Amino acid sequence: MKKxxxxxxxxxxxxxxxxxTNMRADxxxxxxxKGSWGWCDTLGNIIIQPNFSSTGFxxxxxxxxxxSWYATVYCKGAKNEFVFNxxxxxxKKYAQVKNITYLNETGKKNRALYVVQDKKARxxxxxxxxxxxxxxxxxxxxxxxxxxxxxxxxKKENDEFFSEFNPALSTMKSxxxxxISNWTQYVRNSMDYLVLFKHTxxxxxxxxxxxxxxxxxxxxxxxxxxxxxxxxxxSVPENNNVSDGSKPKExxxxxILYVKDFSRYPKIYKKYGFKKLIxxxxxxxxxxxTEKDSIVIPYNYDDIAFSDYNxxxxxxxxxxxxxxxxxxxxxxxxEAKYDKIKNFDSPHNITxxxxxxxxVFKVQLGEQxxxxxxxxxxxxxxxx
Length: 384
Prior knowledge:
Layout: H1 2-21, E1 29-33, E2 36-40, E3 46-52, E4 54-55, E5 59-60, E6 69-75, E7 78-83, E8 87-88, E9 95-103, E10 109-117, E11 123-127, E12 132-139, E13 141-143, E14 152-155, E15 163-166, E16 171-174, E17 177-187, E18 190-199, E19 204-207, E20 214-216, E21 223-227, E22 255-261, H2 266-272, E23 276-282, E24 285-290, E25 295-301, E26 303-306, E27 313-318, E28 321-326, E29 334-338, E30 340-341, E31 348-353, E32 356-365, E33 368-373, E34 378-381
Parallel strand pairs: 1-34
Antiparallel strand pairs: 1-2, 2-3, 4-6, 5-6, 6-7, 7-8, 9-10, 10-11, 11-12, 13-14, 14-15, 15-16, 17-18, 17-21, 18-19, 19-20, 22-23, 23-24, 24-25, 26-27, 27-28, 28-29, 30-32, 31-32, 32-33, 33-34
């Protein structure tokens, strides 16, 4: 029975791997299955099973190989990266803190090292190509100069001095550095930044970016900001262009609300037969028509608004809910049933071919997030 179970498991794994291999990673969309995230295709078919607390879209050229497709994922709140057809970049029980780009012995850039953190908040350095630790998680502070990773500085809680690690040679040596600090100075109305090392005798040095050499430095008028060891992981701010649902329900006078003029684009008139799109209110409801009174969007909504950055689609607002209509598309209206379209002005664009990009909108219902394609397919199964 154990042999049969193993064989069936291998067949399933090979089938999933085959499905992934025949797919383009950049065509996959994060899929929310009641709080567990994986990836699906544009029709909603799950390609990589939901096993993460969140997933992102796949991008090329970062991670441990320039040929890899990777996506940022979170495993129980811990940041990691998933490499298409390979799996997690960092072992699941560790959190990715920072990618280290350094020059190897031949002078080429190598992105295979990552600062990682274990569940006890101890730091180490993991080598993704060999899938081994260059330095095990036993450090409390690691400083990686962003422009010079030939020297990485590490310190344990009870250490008096920092140690210096060379990732290209995998060598470690002791130093007399007791503090690594961030300093700033205004130079000609602009802020200049510098990282300084304080030594046990009270002197200061800096690490030059061009020669990779440590040189003495007189701090003079420089002002200390804060001690820094690790770069903060900044979050991407979400778009807050949303309706508050406060528009009055009573019938308002008929009125032209907005006119989008496409007269400068003769190809649009030739292909779609209009030069202008007119958002107007009739009988208290808002819709959109061409200059020839051909209805593009029925007069069923409280409001309609073009994106500030893209004239190819509009937001539909009805009873405090939001939807989308793509103007130059045969796809149906994405009805106004979501609490918020979180990336309305900057939807994710999937380049299908030289003539077509497929838009994916991030939506929110209650406390749950998911994605909806321009084809109206919902890439989620929300909890009841």
